[in-house]
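Homework help board

Subject: predicted structure for assignment chain

Our instructor gave us this sequence and asked us to write out the predicted structure in token form, then describe one feature. I got the tokens but I'm not sure how to describe them. Can anyone check?
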Amino acid sequence: MKTEDSTEDTETTHRAAQPAEEDTDAPGTAGSPPPPEDARARRHDLTAAALAVLLVTAAVLIGRYVQNRTGTLQVQWPPLLASWDPHLGPGTPAALTMAVLVIAYGPPLAARLPWRGLLAAAWAGSTAWVFSMALIDGWYRGVGRRLTTKHEYLRVIDRFDDIPATLRGFTDHIVIGEPGNWPAHVAGHPPGATLTFVWLDRIGLGGGAWAAVWCVVVGSSAVLAALITVRVLAGERLARRAAPFLVLAPAAVWAGVSADGYFAAVAAWSVALLALAATRRVRFPAAAAAGGGLLFGWTCYLSYGLGLMAAVLLAVLVLARTARPVVPFLLGALVVPAAFTLVGFNWWTAYHLLVERYYQGAGGVRPYAYWVWANLACAVLAAGLAAVAGVRRSASYAPGAVRATLRTGTGTPAQRLALLVLAALVALLAADLSGMSKAETERIWQPFLLWLLPAAALLPARTARYWLVASVVPALLINHLLWTGW
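My token output:
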């Protein structure tokens, strides 16, 4: 079932440069004032961004007061898990260069490059952006050592000599107080996360540097998955307009180097494969659906909270108006759980023990009343003000989008993108309300935040550079003024 006009299927190099109905810049001629509706929408965008800034400011000021008075926030620079550390590094010139180049040339290039060329440029640009941000902290501290600290996965590689035996006994070491309890990140995730680095070590890519390269290169491919998904569900024009915002994602501060960037990519490709299968934009849709299911199953064994990505997957099916991929997707999704269960690892038992450990540590001290809203301030910093304004536009499209979807199954491309973005927002809010994400959400929520970034495509094209600046400058300041590592 197609989700867009057949003309979308042809790859043209100048497609995105032409006017379209959903382009808020289309009315009027160059130099003429925007219509009242457009001017009002822009004021609302700026208001949403201003309110987001106030939210972050309140989280900083109230957070510092609470932390200085009680110490219960368990972070040094609330609402971020960070410490004050003004510094420059070898990545500084590269990061500044990347920012200037993408802001100056990203929007027109995204409009004119052939589609496959755009995908290649986006992946390369995202990888360069994340690496340059990591290198602001230097090679050793920012890249090579990041995944080897006492909390990280690489500290337990030697305990997986017998993988089946280790998996059978994995739950015995989650709770604090048990002999040989796992480090924080190992205990806090299903064993699929640690196994990734075990397997890298087995093929000769051991150590922190190779683990970092894996997380950055694979994690940056999430940009491709998001672009492909937006294209097949909401049209190529919006995908092209979203590309610069995805490349210069503020979350690069934490993606370089973090395993959560890798988790985000796996989850994103699950969504992309389901979207391709649902819209029948691939030669073998059933195989694509099964592949998407396989990746979703793996996603759930990388992080317990990523089952919430089901909201985005459901939105894909709703927008495609089909249930045909459901059976192969579910069959694929059962493979990973079945394999782990047969070996002897029980996901549900591990999750309940994780909850116990969570409340044994900082999770039991950090006040829900602060973090339930301060988490959203962290999300603002990691997603950027452009995403905030885009989410505001998505919310304004929501009523019409729901009516169009329920009545005719169509809707404008902007409405369709809005529904995809809002599905990710629902998943993020569910994670927030659960109380299992108190602090560190600037890193942990990367798989959800990725899907908020394309909302920036809903903003007027002529303002794209301004919104890119508004999102990138805070990210550069955070990375240069704070130390955000564990």
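Reply (TA_rk): Your tokens look well-formed. For the description, you could write something like this. The longest strand covers residues 83-84. That's the kind of observation they're looking for.
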